[in-house]
Fold this protein.
Amino acid sequence: MEALSELGEFLKSRRAAVRPEEAGISPLPGRRRVTGLRREELAMLSGVSVTHYTRLEQGRGNGASDSVLDAIARTLRLSEDETAHLKRLARPVAASRAPQARAPQVSASARQLLAAMTGIPTLVLDRRGEVLAWNRLGHALLAGHLDPDARPNLIRMLFLDERYRELYPDRPEETQLAVASLRLVAGRHPDDRRLAELIGELSMKSAEFASLWARHPVRTCTSGVKRLHHPLVGPMDLAFENLDIPGSSGQRLIAYTAEPGSPCEAALRMLGELTAVPDPDHDRTHS
């Protein structure tokens, strides 16, 4: 999780992904040892000295300017998320020596909001993907096989919980996005011990996670459509929105909705009916 070591690995992975022809370089005749760009080629295309770039790849990037990093990002064709990640790795902040904070708490107003959204699956997550709270329909949609009072980590479940994995017919796409989002968070919070423990656990227990993590994907996703196949109501395409909760140390609210009048809306309504309980006090926010 050390940022400077991550910097070198990230640059190597992205350099290997750019073919010389794509960068306007005509390979010389003969066998080429690398499929991607050489250090010298990347430095030349970026207008950076080979020595300076080599120092970056060796994890010695503390003095790198925005102009140098932007030039390298352009040559490597990095996305906006990847460019921001590169800059964070090149200029890491000093790790905090403060003791680990207590388990995050969901505010009373957020719990009230979840409870009020009875027809919309909604949950609150922390930056590591851990469920802090969810309403009854959110629990029924994503983890009906778990106790409602459980606080699972959705990323851990995606790799280690077979019943949760079966929700996603496009699971390879879902796992890639989960790892890319986790990489982004890890770059922003290199001193988060619990995050490092989660990454270590998944690397040990899931070869799939370890393989994806080694590719250094970086991407954020705040909205879109999830394709689910629920064991009770079948396939559903649900739009989702991530809404940051101000001042909550990375907490975010996620809500899932179906297109009005669609079969997916009918399936979501049926899920609510199938999981309803006669006791009105049961339909509350669990945290």
